[in-house]
Here is the input.
Amino acid sequence: MSAGSKEANEQRPEGLTPIIAMQDVQFQYPGAEGTALRNINLIIQPGEFIAIAGTNGSGKSTLCKCLNGLIPNYYVGDLSGSVQVAGLTAAEETVSSLSRKVAYVFQDFENQLVRPTVYDEACFAPLNYGYADYRERGQRALAMLGIDHLKEQWIWQLSGGQKHLTALAGALSLDPDIIIVDEPVAQLDPYHAKLIYEKLKLLNEQFGKTIIVIEHHTEFIADYCHKVILMDSGTIRWVKPVQAALSAVDELAALHILPPQVTLAVRDAETAAGQVHLRDRLFPITIEDAAAYFSEAKILSQTNNALVINEPIRKSVRESVPASNPLVTFTNVSYGYKTITRERYPVIQDMSIRFYEGDRIALVGNNGAGKSTLLKLISGIRRPSAGQLDVCGYLTKQASPEQLADFVAYVYQNPEEMFIEDSVRKDVEYFLKSRNSPDYSSFVDEILHRMRLTDLQDRDGRLLSGGQQRRATLAIGLAMRPTVMLLDEPTASLDASSRREMTDMLAQLDGQVKTTVIATHDMQLVAEWANRVIVMHNGAVALDTDQRSLFSHVAVLEKTGLLAPQITQLSQRLGIDPPSLSVAEFIASVVGDPSSPHYVNRSKESAAIGSH
Amino acid sequence: MEAIKQSMLDKLSVEQIKIELMRTAFGRQSTFLSRFDPRMLLVWYSFFAVAPWFIHNKVVLLGLLVPMLVLTLSSKVSPLVLIIMGVGLVSEISYILLGSLLFGGSLEAVWPLLTLTLKILLISLASIAVFSSMDPEKLSDALLSIGMPGQFSFGVSYGYRMLPILIEEYHNLIHSFRLRGRAPAKKGFLRVNSLIYMAKIGVRAFYPLLLNTAKRTRTTVEALEVRGFTYALVSPEAKKLKLSHMQVHALDFVFLGCSLIYVIALFSLGHYLSFSFN
Here is the structure.
């Protein structure tokens, strides 16, 4: 047992005094028009695991920055009301005294890492505060998170998940009572996000830390948090226990927070079955509860019990031979890069695969599986070290990226690396201008309009919100009129409404491009958008199939660390075959209501795919 | 021939330069010089970086060159760095030669200028040997302990942490330009057009790099605040704690002593030899 847990246990009996108490707190940023926080009254007990949800700009981060003293010591604004944190009166303290009690992991955690190695990073804060045992503290924090083996690693060599854990370790080394994590899921893939939450759970349960997460991924909230604070335009709308909070489906949806799929499923199934909901009705929020609920067959008994979709199981896309020539052909392609020890590290190994017109390919697999490298190879900015790669009739080894750009558009994972001009419009025009396209201006207008960027066209891309940035990069890609569109994680770090919007825009691409390849961790996007799924593992194709059969390959999913969408997992548990890919589909199969508009839509869609 | 050209191009690629830079910064090799206390190395270096300017005796200069070459080789310096230095020296000597011949001079004029080149070579080798043996973390601590401001010494080690990220981002930005731009259709004489095109991109890519970095800094500054960086700047205990790991050993004095004895010996020898030459 480390010292941290002992201290925590000693604190437990005193748990009656709240660890955080805010009374009538109001804050206004200097120079800002309105108040960022209003009438904040909040009590948090030690050992709670709390989620703060709310739309962008609702004051979530501002609230948390009041707790570690950044407000009002660093952001000198108008703060009124009283804030008590871990026995300290915030108004009388400094950032340095408060941040020893309150650890903060930022949303863009990579920028909070300031030291060259993991161990240095873990020791940094205790060293600054002059703790003589800073080495032990760093070591202990690494051990608590189970990353001692990374100790000697350089920060730049770490994966996203490892960096997040390192940032957490750097905060933990001060042995804080409260840990605030700002949107852990946004920048991480689902596998690592789950890992982070497991660690937070451990810190909460074993070491008695109070955990506050800013989060809008309700599936994580459902699995890990005790309470939810809902914020709306600078005020706290309510604080509720997690189940009651997530059952407020319509209220959350109005604030662009997507309730868990299983909760929606139960609600919609009951509605479809003609039940009227009371206001305080609690719905199941986890897969376990939902599975138990549906097994009791409250719904099913009212309808036919046969859980079958009247649709033949579609053949794998690959079994039908496409009539057209492939647009992209990999023939025994390998690629590796040199590491700083001058050794070659293989990323893609002896890969042979073809992409055809009409393919909507989702490229999935864990980090380091080679997804991004595959896209870079197609775009021509990486060249195969062995084998041949043919893209639209060009061998990439002999063609320059500029030549391939006539056929291929590659949209980066990080939008900021695509903004090379000082306004969105100039960025969108860049390709056409460099090729002296006649009359490009009306075409650009049209694209900006379609991506809803007309009002933003003169802004610098860097200063837009996450969702706007993604739209802008998509517009840049579209303006190239590509045959092949490559997108790297287009829905990563977007909130629910931007995500939905992005998925809709991706669905529109069909008429514009001949084939689209998306590297993604977003299994809902895979389920709803793709017609071909390629699972990569260790630089090779582990599976090439369609999205429906993907989720029945349990062994492959496990090996590659992929998680099916909640609704798919639920339908598998209930023995629905083929498994549902969306809530609407699920409802249709359990309630059997073919007149549901979603159901009709999907039938049309699958008919179209079937004829492919 | 084509294969050789290809392999030369590979060696010169941005990717390759990136690896060599990273090797130089993060190679973490133990070398002869890396054993010594960084402050001692700074003292040693400050002599050998300045002294050659005031030495006119070629025997002494040549005598100094020998240990510098040995130390540089023992520091396992990246070939890229040596090649760049070599190119610089060769081009310098050749333009001096060319200039002197053009203006009616003879090889006579080259001789004194070669002394200057020798001095520059000595100083460059000393810098390479010392700084490639001392990782920036050590340098940063050494600077702090000799009284440089905390912000400055932190800047050195922060630059060290950011370097790979900036290089990576710069590389991606260059790709952004290439993926949307158009290379000149005619490569021109000696690929001059392509070179100009790439050089232009190389410069333009710095602007987005600067802007992106500026944007990122906000979180970094907040994080530094929260993690006690400003607190440590004004706290003498924190500084003491930070530097407590640095210790001067007997070996450091042995090294300084040997260097001193060698230099004295060299001067006496130089004195004697120059007399006998005259």
